[in-house]
Design brief:
With about 60 residues, this protein is an alpha+beta fold. The chain contains two helices and two strands, in the order ααββ. It has one domain: Histidine kinase-like ATPase, C-terminal domain (Heat Shock Protein 90), CATH 3.30.565.10.
């Protein structure tokens, strides 16, 4: 995936698919859920090489 696409993939309603091919909510919702659990969603990609998503969610949340 290109750098331009990587910068937009977690934006609400962003898609690379044709109009009518989905709601374009998947990556945005995934990011929000992981973030609410104090986690991180990372994307590693290189054009024509593939894309890897890394999800990190803490086992325990620090109490405040």
């Amino acid at each position: 995936m290109t750098e331009e696409t990587m910068q937009k993939i977690f934006a609400l309603f962003y898609t690379t698919k044709p109009v009518g091919s989905g709601t374009s909510l998947g990556m945005s919702i995934s990011y929000q859920i992981i973030n609410k659990h104090s986690g991180q969603l990372k994307c590693i990609s290189a054009p024509l090489q593939g894309t890897e998503f890394i999800i990190q969610i803490p086992i325990q949340i620090k109490s405040v």
